[in-house]
Amino acid sequence: MSILLLMAIPVFVIWTLVAFRKFNSRPQVNLPLVITAALISGVVLGYDFYHQSVVTIDRLIWGGMLVYFGYLVINQKVSIPQFNHIDCAVFGLILLITFSTFSHDWRYKDNLPMGRLLFFNLMPLGFYVVARFVQFTPKDLRYHFWTMALLGVFLSLLGTAEVFEKYQFVWPRYIADSAEIEFLGRARGPLINPIANGMFMLAGLVGTLSLWPRNSENSTLNENLSQKILLIAFVLILLFGIYATKTRSVWLAAVIVITPYVWRQLSPRGRGGLLVGGLVSAALLVGLAGNTLNNFKRDKHVTAAETAESITLRPMLATVALDMFRDRPLTGFGFGQYTKAKGPYHHKTVNGASLQKVLPYMQHNLFLSYLTELGLLGLLTLMAIILSVTYAAYRVLNQSKCETTRSAMLAALMLLAAWICNGMFHDVSIIPMIGSLMFFWFGISNENYSRLLTGATESYGEVDAFHSTKAATV
Fold first, then answer.
1. pLDDT tens-place string over residues 353-385
2. Residue 11 reports pLDDT greater than 80
3. Of 281, 323, 369, 418, which one is least surrounded by beta carbons within 10 A?
4. Does the pLDDT of residue 468 top 50, yes or no?
């Protein structure tokens, strides 16, 4: 154990005790800030930033968040609501993954299945539990929107420096380390992955758009104008950072995310123009720039031809997944066992191409990954989460009287759409921090949905000073 870790542990314990004493009087005000800090630390202060064995700074903060939450529950300052179908789906999926892990070779490949269980499923579950059982007021949600917007801007500026190779402006320094050559030349960020970096920039974009001011009795024209100028600057920076990821699924997700926010601001005639203009633009983009989108240099050490080839590999990976599914349709081959079981399914040729070509790759689709490792049980449980969270968020969006709450539910829906969009082209379940981000928003959605059902939807007040309740929903 290093001297830095020996110094960090007592400091962490002391500050945790101080936080308990300070936050004890106002738990509902401070716990949302703690969970936001834990989420951000996972992006910026993760394994690559500093680690001693499995101990990292962000995991210590995550553990402190759970300890503080448990302390508040024990002291009855946070109540545990009645479980509902979303809770059952979320906990059911984690229990299924846990059972699948230990019923197969969980020590495979240096405990890879165990590592995935702990850091890509149980840690996100911790974010879900705290977000689910703690009430986020409109003020808390606005703080979270601002925090994610600023984080997204930071990641975008960082990604811009990466793409232009201005490594003197890149921090943390390990991002520019030449030993990490995968995705080099793209905006890969502190998580060293352009998809993860793109998802958090999309979260920043959602946060920025959610802060767009509307007329309120408590705001002046100059205040709204100043905030709009600032938010427009944020959006432009974020869009360039998203472009710098050089990842087509992230680009597509950005279009999906922006469209509803623009749609809300337009008149019926303007919406018709947006629809026609969008269809024409999409047709022109495919017709004039289709080859460019499929054949361009992304990574510093990957050619344009290799980028174009990546499109042809995905149908081959899908063939492998479906063949594996036919052999074990119900429970799959076991969580974390794909690389161990996939070998025999590459010994054939499809449309003149040998499947041996995709043997080195993991699955590039979230749903096919679940299908191969957890079978129909896992895939259907995942779909139950997606559908139930979508229904819950949409219902609150249309029935809540608080505009900030409605903005949060629209944010949840847009992040869910961005997650699915990226999940169609990448196994986002094995990309750092994406699961934590999504499970956090699953918890927020379910918490608001539960209060809607119990008639306590506006217990903190129907109107908040930031938004007007007269704004139309989608």
1. 788 888 988 999 999 999 999 999 999 999 999
2. no
3. 281
4. no
Residue partners of 361: CB distance under 8 A and separation at least 6: 313, 317
How many helices and strands in the chain, by DSSP H and E? 16, 4
* Nearest-5° Cα angle at 364, 253 to 341: 155
Sign of the torsion formed by the C-alpha atoms of 147, 153, 154 and 156: positive
Burial (CB < 10 A; 0-12, 13-18, 19+), residue 48, is middle
β pairing state of 349-350 and 353-354 = antiparallel
DSSP of 352-388? TEEGGGGTTPPPS-HHHHHHHHHHHHHHHHHHHHHHH
Q: List the one residue out of 397, 379, 382 whose CA is nearest residue 445.
A: 397
What pLDDT is recorded for position 292? 55
- Write the single-letter amino acid at 338: Y
Contacts 24+ apart (CB under 8 A), 218-221: 218/465, 219/465
C-alpha 237/C-alpha 226 separation (Å) is: 17
DSSP at 473: P
DSSP character for 232?
Answer: H
- Give the predicted TM-score (pTM) of the model: 0.88
Q: Any idea which residue has 């993991």 for tokens?
A: 362
H-assigned helices in 190-295: 194-210, 221-244, 248-265, 268-294
Q: Quickly list H helices, 24-122.
A: 27-44, 57-74, 85-102, 108-117
Centre a 10 Å sphere on the Cβ of residue 302 and count the other Cβ atoms it contains. 18
Task: Compute the distance between CA of residue 367 and CA of residue 95 in angstroms, rounded to an integer.
Answer: 18
The number of C-alpha atoms within 13 Å of 406 and in the hemisphere containing its C-beta is 22
Domain ranges, ordered by start, for the chain? 1-79, 84-474
Q: Which of these ranges, 13-17, 91-95, 396-400, 460-464, has the smallest mean pLDDT?
A: 460-464
- Taking the CA atoms of residue 337, residue 126, residue 192 and residue 174 in that order, the dihedral angle to the nearest 10 degrees is -120
Q: Which two tokens stand for residue 444?
A: 């927020």
Question: In this predicted model, what pLDDT tens digit does every residue of 412-456 receive, in sequence order?
Answer: 999 999 999 999 999 999 999 999 999 999 999 999 999 898 876
